[in-house]
Structure formats: structure tokens, C-alpha cells
Design a protein that fits this description.
Length: 180
């Protein structure tokens, strides 16, 4: 007995429909990327180049700082190199005193202050006597007041050489607090 099989044209249509569904559902492999946007493979290659030190190296803090200063200079509209030398020197003093160019940098304590915080943290963790806690609290408070005083002095010196517009840019950059 012969097995029943669909007529040949119907089998072809079924096969063609199944193939069409498979092709339509599968992700496009040779889909051209949008102009100006790299393909996923190209993105992977650029990531690998960054990791391996290829053409595009990882971020260098010195280069980032220079770019930040360049953006500040442009935002402050300083064209005179002598004027910028004075301003950038005072910006560096503010940053060295603990006033960064952004909110995340403002809260970063100095090395001695960090050491005092660690000492206080270990005293609390280890359950040291109250006299030792008071001593470590006083040391940390003194360091914070000292940093605050030097920061305010550096900010006042920076504010003294800025125009009102430049001061506004410095406030927005996190270098200065708004004047009262």
C-alpha cells in the first residue's frame, strides 16, 4: 500500500511558508547598521582595544583634568592667558584644599582626615572607652575645621579674581558655594 502524501504543489507551499517564518523570526545577520553607528562587533572591538591598550586607551586622570579645565575656561569665557593663569592657579588651590569640581569631590576627605576617620571607626567597632572615643572625635573635628578653614580661604581668593559670570560658572562646577 502506498502512503498518502500531499500533492506536490501543496508540499512546496508548506515548505516555502515554513522557510519564510524561520527567516522572518531569526535575527538579521547581514543587516546594515545605521550610518554613524558602529555594529555590535565593532563596539566589541573598540572595547577590546580599550582594555588591551590599543588606539583608545583607558581614561587618564591628568588628561581628564586638563579637559575639565579647558571646559571651565571656555564656560568662563577667559581669553587672556595671563588672566587664566591666575584663575587656574586659584582653582588648583581650591581643589587641593578639598573643594572639587563636583559634588562627589566635595565630600572626599584629605589623607590625614581619612586616617582619623578610620581610627574613630575602629574605636567604635572595638568598643574602646568613652575617653578614647572623645579623643578621636576631637582629632577628627580639628582636622575637618582646619580643612574647612583652608578651603574657605582658597574659595575667597578665587572669588576675588572672578567676574560675576565666572563666579556663577564656578558655583555650577562645584568649586564655590553661592555667595550669601
Amino acid at each position: 500500500m502506498r502512503a498518502l502524501s500531499p500533492p506536490l504543489p501543496l508540499a512546496r507551499w508548506a515548505l516555502l511558508a515554513a522557510f519564510t517564518v524561520v527567516v522572518a523570526v531569526s535575527p538579521a545577520q547581514d543587516k546594515p547598521s545605521k550610518p554613524g553607528k558602529p555594529d555590535r562587533e565593532e563596539k566589541g572591538e573598540s572595547r577590546e582595544m580599550k582594555r588591551s591598550g590599543g588606539e583608545k586607551a583607558a581614561r587618564d586622570p591628568a588628561v581628564e583634568a586638563a579637559r575639565s579645565l579647558t571646559r571651565l575656561r571656555e564656560a568662563m569665557r577667559v581669553t587672556d592667558d595671563a588672566e587664566w593663569a591666575v584663575i587656574s592657579e586659584r582653582i588648583a588651590a581650591v581643589q587641593a584644599a578639598g573643594g572639587g569640581a563636583g559634588p562627589k569631590d566635595k565630600a572626599k576627605p584629605a589623607s590625614a582626615e581619612r586616617t582619623a576617620q578610620d581610627a574613630l571607626r575602629s574605636a567604635v567597632r572595638d568598643g574602646l572607652p568613652e575617653a578614647e572615643l572623645r579623643l578621636r572625635l576631637a582629632r577628627l573635628g580639628g582636622l575637618q575645621r582646619e580643612r574647612g578653614t583652608s578651603l574657605e580661604r582658597a574659595r575667597a581668593e578665587l572669588r576675588a579674581v572672578l567676574t560675576v559670570r565666572q563666579e556663577a560658572v564656578a558655583v555650577l562646577a562645584g568649586l564655590l558655594d553661592p555667595a550669601p
